[in-house]
Specification:
Blueprint lengths: L1 E2 L6 H14 L4 E5 L14 H12 L5 E3 L12 H11 L6 E5 H5 L7 H7 L1 E5 L12 H4 L7 E4 L8 H9 L10 H9 L15
Parallel strand pairs: 1-2, 2-3, 4-5, 5-6
Helix pairs in contact: 2-8, 3-5
The structure holds adenosine-5'-triphosphate (ATP) and magnesium ion.
Adenosine-5'-triphosphate binds next to helix 1, strand 4, helix 4 and helix 7.
């Protein structure tokens, strides 16, 4: 599951847990982005902070892990690079890429999306405020195996990192939206302070 994770929140964790259960996955690997090109121009917290928050949030679950492939990459991150690296590290694994309904809407703007389907099966999860559909992808899915893309309804959590950043910047609580350790990490590292206004409008 790729993401900016700025910060990671319970919407991400529930999505991962639900898909893991539904597909009987051995492991869910969270992959924080390095420099997210689709958010270029927008201020994003340092990759190391986002990586550490993701580690803190997932540490207690033996079925969750975090990969540094994108954080350590020199150039901008594309999902296809992530999947190539994960494929190289796990040559025998069946890979699934978990993505929320909003990210699925933009799949056609992803680089090398045809190769994406060869590298992994895709799982689109529901997200409040976004339509979970494949109509816009139908012509590209023709000829793909039936399980190339599966849509999964998950418990609706109307949480976004953007809203968490906004709350933190206004000294409003993010308790229960993100794991406790992440609340404490945000405060310890002074992330999302009011002056960082440009960080508030994520996409
Ligand atoms: P931002 O507001 O900064 O864009 P975000 O909450 O959308 O943050 P991302 O890191 O951009 O989080 O998302 C990573 C992945 O998790 C994406 O595929 C996104 O669609 C999915 N996702 C994020 N929040 C939810 C949620 N509440 N329910 C389901 N999927 C989600
Ligand atoms: Mg997002």
């Amino acid at each position: 599951m790729g993401g900016t994770f700025d910060p990671i929140h319970h919407g991400h964790l529930v999505a991962a847990s639900e898909v893991s259960d539904r597909f009987g996955l051995d492991e869910v690997i969270f992959v924080p982005t390095g420099q997210p090109w689709q958010k270029a121009g927008k201020e994003v917290s340092p990759a190391e902070d986002r990586y550490l928050m993701t580690v803190i949030a997932t540490a207690s679950n033996p079925g969750f892990s975090v990969s540094r492939v994108d954080v350590d990459r020199e150039k901008a991150t594309y999902t296809v690079d992530t999947l190539r690296d994960l494929r190289a590290q796990n040559p025998d694994a069946d890979l699934y890429f978990i993505t929320g309904a909003d990210a699925l809407e933009t799949i056609l703007s992803w680089q090398d999306w045809e190769e994406l389907f060869r590298l992994a099966k895709f799982v689109g999860v529901s997200r409040p405020g976004f339509e979970l559909g494949i109509e816009h992808l139908a012509e590209h899915l023709t000829g793909q195996p039936k399980d190339a893309l599966t849509l999964v309804e998950i418990p609706a959590l109307a949480i976004s990192s953007t809203e968490c950043r906004r709350r933190a910047s206004e000294n409003r609580p993010v308790w229960y939206l993100v794991p406790d350790g992440v609340v404490q990490y945000i405060s310890k590292r002074n992330l999302y302070r009011p002056l960082d206004a440009e960080r508030l409008d994520g996409a």
